[in-house]
Amino acid sequence: MKETVSDLLQSALAALQSEGVLPADQSFAPQIGNTKDKSHGDYACNIALVAAKSAGCAPRKLAEALVANLPASAAVDKVEIAGPGFINFFMSTASAFGVVNTALEQAENFGRNHSGRGEKVQVEFVSANPTGPLHVGHGRGAAIGDCICRLLDANGYQVTREFYYNDAGAQINNLGLSVQARVKGLTPDHESWPENGYRGDYIADVAEAYLAGKTITADDRSVTGQAEPDNLEAITDFAVAYLRREQDLDLKAFGVEFDVYFLESSLYNDGKVEATVKRLQENGYTYEDGGALWLKTTEFGDDKDRVMRKTDGGYTYFVPDVAYHLDKWQRGFSTVINEQGADHHSTVTRVRAGLQALNIGIPEDWPDYVLHQMVMVTRGGEEVKISKRAGSYVTLSDLIEEVGRDATRFFLAARRVDSQLTFDIDLARSQTNENPVYYIQYAHARICSVLRKLTVEGVQRGRHECAGDLTLLTLDEEKELANQLAKYPELVASAAAQREPHTLSQYLRELAGLFHSYYNAHKVLIEDTALRDARISLYLAVRQVIENGLGLLGVRAPEEM
To answer: 367 preceded by cis ω (within 30°)?
Structure first.
């Protein structure tokens, strides 16, 4: 319906331009918003305030001229001018319920569009070091990243999901030393335990599998335990493969899969890090100082230059990141989105500076970043901090075991990414209206229950069948439900464009709330079969949108609860 209002206003603007009221050489794009107070109509537009200066008249006078030039439309009941020049549109009942037909006709495709035109988009998310089980922060990144991918796909983009494994560096060395200590029979409380070693019970599991000679198949390799306590390289390779496989299994249990697994080690093995450094040197953006190699990141907005190669000859962590993103660019991804924890904030400027210093035409704001804040898990009002298996943090698998996949996914994606998240286990487990995922799923299940009762009465309704005269839907609650359904396609588009999947969870909760209120106030299985059929059609449209929306969140839409 917003498109209808926009088209009407565009016609009125064109008419005023042809009359000379507005300059013909300027373009005007009316922004249509939903009203908060229904006494002000369904939609409002401030174009008269925006364009008044160009017209050389008061905004309200321009608003009057626009309204006078609006084409007649059966979709609009009336138009009012409010305040200094806001134009409020009251939509007709017929136009309000047109969305019911549309939702049922398009079914699972309702809300999807082709605005992305098949553009290639790569989304990198999770990208955990293969040094232990995934923690709840990784889980939040998995939920947000996967939802962004689903939303982009719904908008017609060709999406590649990518996981970047940091399988090189000091943390991997510490992993190998930790497993080797366990292989030799040491425990974390032993005085010879590695100073920066990992202490969770999972280290003992890796060591046991290594000594048993088990074969572990990761994404790109199979590694067999050598059962040799002194072969640190073999132990490290086995441990990385073991934990990569475990993380992959956890993510699959979470409903998240990847198209590409990229190894940091490959950047060194294939000479891409050295080639990147060489190009930066040739471009004149590096210098030697104090035995280290520096990058002139201050020339690209950083607060100080950064060390690239340390005095011991090793590269700092952002150098392979620059090489990795160069590889992404060379693979043809004009849009890249990195979903990471907020602790990666400092890498944004450095990586972008390194990419600019390559002088190959990469845009200044490439890649995009979505940085999520930390997660605190609580039970009984108290913070839960430790998982025995991980040793020092709550794992993603802990949460899934406690509350299930649906609640875990929903809760981890339900807040703005830049806000800290408190994951209340008690709330996520509860079957009450306060639990948002239960509340939404219950709305879907309620509709399915009504349809089963209808079948018992001998009335069959197809899930996509729009029956009954929708003009019989005259209640304010019914129109409000229809208006909420009409917002869904725009919501899918904006959530993808803004990288804000939390807006989808908020929308679904509002829709479920409107439905529950309507369901409790007005019976649907009534003797007036014409009205019954119209209400069932509205029910079916609500069910379809809930199912579609939950699908974009990776959450089930159960028929029974």
So the answer is: yes
Q: pTM of the prediction?
A: 0.88
Tokens (6 digits) for 96: 């309000």
Identify the three-state secondary structure at position 217: strand
What is residue 344's predicted lDDT score, i.e. its pLDDT? 86
Confidence of residue 386 (pLDDT cuts 50, 70, 90): low
Map residue 32 onto helix, strand or coil: strand
Which pLDDT belongs to residue 327?
Answer: 98
- pLDDT exceeds cutoff 70 at 180: yes
Percent of the chain scored above 70 by pLDDT?
Answer: 99
What is the C-alpha separation between 364 and 427, in angstroms, rounded?
43
- Residue 523 to residue 246: CA distance in whole angstroms: 50
Q: 19: buried, middle or exposed (CB in 10 Å: 19+, 13-18, 0-12)?
A: exposed
* Overall average pLDDT of the 82-95 stretch: 86
194 token code pair? 């590695």
Report phi then psi at 189, rounded to 5: -85, 0
Give yes or no for a contact between 438 and 432, defined as CB atoms under 8 angstroms apart: yes
Torsion sign across C-alpha atoms 207, 208, 213, 217:
negative
d(CA 472, CA 530): 8
Residue 388, pLDDT score = 63
Burial 182-198 (b: 16+ CB within 10 A, else e): bbeebebeeeebbeebb
CA atoms of 335 and 315, how far apart (whole Å): 27
Predicted confidence (pLDDT) per residue in 105-158, tens digit: 999 999 999 999 999 999 999 999 999 999 999 999 999 999 999 999 999 999
